[in-house]
Write a structure and sequence with these properties.
Length: 361
């Protein structure tokens, strides 16, 4: 877009300095977040900035602060999952809210194909972002190593499970207590008199899926449940539909199923209806997440609630605190393990899961 020569010139740093009655260097320190300026002088500069409509040059600010004012949010999933699963929308909403409040730009990077890793690695190493938020990682994901090589402060969504994640300093992350949430779900089904309880898991190269499967085993009181009662639904609705069909074929006498996401549970309900199984009379169903698909389900799903949006907020707050960005009040509020290398008051945060009982069980 070409500017109109009749347009008034953009306010300059010198103009702000003249309006505030201070030096250009003082204005630069104020607009770039520097120190050593008295409160009264800082207020005069801010008033002059507002009156003139001055907008700092982002490139010049980066040279002074050595910061880009941007955070890379990296989701290790293809677009087809991210834009069809409400989980990602809720987590991004929480992240966006916190970054916006801190005047920090969100840059979204997706992993559509394995080839995308090279592009993302170049971006992280190129100094385009001050830090990174990563979630939905898989066991062999190269993203954590890329962030480490780039020296980029990073907060993860989900318990770390990649090779080397257990070495010191431990990664900083936010998660829900997936194992306990799964125990609540299966104990609820047992309390309703169900005895042949199946489980539809997510991909078992993700720690959330592994933890929920372990919670299922805990509640049943066995480390070796009937393998015919376990199926992977891939955390998608279609995957849940197919997994439910496999379970019914392998164990037609099952009387309940714990489905490790509400989206998969909706798919499972479709299969149960198609097979003539009444819910909950013949087969009781419990999901996980308590997002929109739980309310959309027919009948409405009993499910395990995790506050996905709040988890996104916590991730962003922890990273902003790690970056030393003012105006964030976060971190260290959950049941955390120490040793993050991010300061004594920053630790992984684990939020609580809670069973919500509805008609499907």
């Amino acid at each position: 877009m070409v500017s109109d020569p009749k347009d008034p010139p953009r306010p300059t740093l010198e103009a702000v300095a003249a309006r505030a009655g201070v030096s250009r260097a003082t204005v630069s320190r104020v607009v770039n977040g520097g120190t050593g300026v008295r409160d009264a002088v800082r207020e005069r500069v801010r008033q002059a900035v507002a009156e003139l409509g001055y907008v700092p040059n982002s490139a010049a600010r980066s040279l002074v602060t050595r910061r880009t004012g941007a955070v890379a949010v990296i989701i290790a999933e293809p677009e087809t999952r991210i834009f069809t699963d409400p989980f990602f929308g809720h987590q991004l909403r929480g992240i966006s809210h916190e970054l916006s409040a801190a005047d920090t730009q969100l840059v979204l990077l997706l992993v559509e194909h394995r080839d995308n890793y090279a592009r993302i690695g170049r971006y992280l190493a190129g100094g385009h972002a001050d830090g990174a938020l990563m979630f939905s990682l898989h066991g062999d994901d190269p993203l954590p190593a890329m962030a480490e090589r780039a020296g980029l402060p990073t907060v993860y969504g989900g318990r770390p499970g990649w090779p080397g994640a257990d070495r010191a300093p431990r990664p900083l992350y936010v998660d829900t207590d997936n194992r306990d949430g799964a125990r609540q779900a299966v104990r609820h089904l047992l309390g309703r008199g169900r005895r042949r309880i199946a489980v539809i898991t997510g991909p078992l190269d993700q720690t959330s899926a592994l933890d929920r499967l372990d919670g299922y085993r805990d509640a049943l009181g066995t480390a070796d449940p009937d393998p015919r009662l376990i199926a992977d639904g891939g955390f998608t609705a279609l995957g849940g539909e197919h997994a439910m069909a496999r379970l019914l074929d392998a164990a037609p006498d099952l009387d309940a199923v714990f489905v490790c996401s509400d989206l998969m549970a909706n798919g499972a309900l479709r299969t149960l209806r198609a097979r003539g199984r009444r819910v909950p009379d013949d087969v009781a169903v419990v999901g996980y997440d308590d997002l929109e698909p739980a309310a959309w389900a027919d009948p409405p799903l009993t499910t395990v609630r995790q506050d996905v949006e709040e988890m996104g907020r916590l991730m962003a707050r922890l990273l902003l605190r790690r970056l030393g960005v003012a105006g964030t009040g976060a971190g260290g509020t959950g049941a955390g393990a120490g040793g993050t290398g991010a300061g004594p008051d920053l630790a992984p945060v684990i939020t609580k899961a809670r069973l919500v009982v509805r008609e499907s069980s």
